[in-house]
Design brief:
- The complex is a heterodimer of chains A (413) and B (363).
- Chain A is of the alpha/beta class and 413 residues long.
- Chain A is built from 16 helices and 14 strands.
- In chain A, helix 1 packs parallel to helix 10, helix 3 packs antiparallel against helix 8 and helix 12 runs parallel beside helix 13.
- Chain B starts with a helix and ends with a helix.
- With 363 residues, chain B is of the alpha/beta class.
- In chain B, helix 1 packs parallel to helix 4.
- The chains are: A alpha/beta (413), B alpha/beta (363).
- Chains A and B meet through helix 14 of A and helix 3, strand 1, strand 13 and helix 9 of B.
Amino acid sequence: MLHAPEIEAAWARLREAGRALAARSQEDNLEVLARLLDELALPGSETHQRLAADLPEATGFHPATVRAGLELALAGWTGEALHTLVQTELGPDASRRARGFDTTAVLLGGALPMPTILSLVAPLVVGSLVLARSGRHDSVTARCIADALNRLDPELGACLSLSRFARDEREALDAFLRAECVVATGSDETLAEIAGRIDPGTRFVGYGHRLSVAVIGAEADPAEAADALALDVALWDQLGCLSPIAAWVLTPNGKIPDALEAELVRAFGELGKRLPRGVISPEAGAALAQERDGAELRAASNERVRLHAGEGWTLVIEPSSPTGPAPLHRFLRVHPVPDLAALHSNLAPFAPRLAAVGLAAGAEERARLVAALRTLAPSRIAPLGRMQAPPLSWHHDGQGVLWPLVRFTDVEL
Amino acid sequence: MTQPEAEVLRWMRESPDVRDDERFLRLALALFAHQFAHCEPYRRFCEGRGRTPDTIQAWEEIPTVPTGAFKELRLASFPEERTQHVFRTSGTATDQRGELHLESLEAYEASLVPSFERGLLPDLSDELAVRMLSLVPSPIEAPDSSLSHMLGVMHDRRGDSESQFFVEDGELRERSIQSALEAAAAATTPLLLCGTAFAFVHLLDAMAASDQSFVLPASARIMETGGFKGRARAMDRDALYEWITDRLGVPSERIVNQYGMTELASQFYDTILSQPGEPRQKRIPPWVRVRMVDPESGDEVANGEVGVIRIVDLANTGSILAIQTADLGMMRGDGFEVLGRARGAEARGCSIAADEMLSAARS
């Protein structure tokens, strides 16, 4: 664990490394970072394999779940996708119009590797020096990225430094936050605390905790929808902001079709074996037990409530909405809704924090459903089964990936 | 009143300090049979698990209902028209609140008195009046609050003429409580200051703002209860006790935490006053059994290991006697310890539980 003087020394070393960076073109840096992403996307690459090997112990996710999650999510995060992102967000003359901040402090959080990877790579893309603090639940990902970058290009690798300091070490935190830009991932409480500690002139980019939901249209294929939903729930054990915490099924008679229910039970059971759930804390176990037993009690008295549970998963068919507490860790409530108006009123309370909606729908109904869901303004409407594979260009929290990390200069002469 | 209920009442009134395992088992099985027969949702739940009065021989086998279920179902073993009193869990008007339906307050009150007196007034004779200052609404103002009711019973039983409640219209009467504390500091009557942890924070904030502090008499004692769920401000229990000591002059060994919940008729008090010098733990009344279980398997965990707290409370005569809480704890000696939820811990993920979202949407 580092203290304030060591954090200040880390910044000094980064600034020293920045001198060499200043002599390089952003295009050169981009090329190196694109190679880094290409390497990560390859399941057989050294960095990908190291992540797959080391993340389970560090994060508590099952090895099979980590492998599946990494393969699915990283496949689209290629060097080419990075080049496209830069072109899309910053334009063809990016280095003249947009300038990254000299220094960016990145406070990482949670155990999911994807946000960590992007939080480290994005500021480097815009030429910023990066000092990052890993979260308690994942000390692996940032180290893997830093090591891979050092191997690919030591000069650029020197522009990324990792630090660890105690959460309550205020002086170290203040030293860490002495950057032109601060990127933080965490709860509202954490983000508010960070925002309150930084200079008003500092750019603050906060990624708060969010939730996602799944919607299954009346014309969706039951087996495909069930497999896709089970995968989105299983990956990262439903802990990510892109994990659906509940599903709504459009069904004109207000009852979940038997075929879909049976397919869901099959799919959750199969995936529970293929991608077992990871470890859970006693607190999480207690919350799960409360909700599971509560559903069992309701199911005993109401035939429309049905509880299905297996090794590490729980599925509750619930006629009532909106949903009750969602304990996560592969606990899913499935609610029937008769029409789009009911769907909208069910989802509206979640709209302010809605990250994504995963949608399974028949061809005829898809456009209608997308139009209805867009009114809730989630930052993604994705095919069910792809919720854990956002494109690199996904507007996380409705923001750009690179835009918040640069200052634009508009020349009007 | 059924025969088992009458016997539970007799136990609590006549020999509240006597632990009797055989008597407990017999009454637990009899109450289970009664509740199984008269509470339809519970009966179906038990049948679903294959547990019926015919198949159960140990109190540990009685199916527990989660506390959250009291928000969704009427879990009572008597007809609705015979309901005399309903206690509700705290929450706003838009929150779904848990309800404990009671046909009679007899068992509830018979259970609370000996536990309260043993936990908080063990050094005082039964005849001695106590200055009770309670940082909660009175039972008249909050008739559905089990905490207000409990303190109302004790005010009537042990409080002196200056005993008062200090929450009105949802607001803590800070000036009145400070005046009352000033008077109590000069009085010879033993002082008992009761309130929720959050109310104490509120009071201490106000005292800090006016730079006020007291040195309450050495005989003063404090009961704090409840957590900070749904509150904008929360603090660690050790820090709270330190602050209480600093502002009120009451050392931590005279501060008693009470663990209770609306869904349970019995309460648990720290033994810090009743067993001075010994480690702080929650005392289990003789008509209650507590187990710590693995939340996934439901198996009992070993002594000293963390588990979910399950309680079988014979005082829950009219509802369900076997409850599974959402709290974690650890058996310790003859009692147990309630473990606080880890505060400030970093989340493993970035998803929000839906109840948090719904709360945010309502506010």
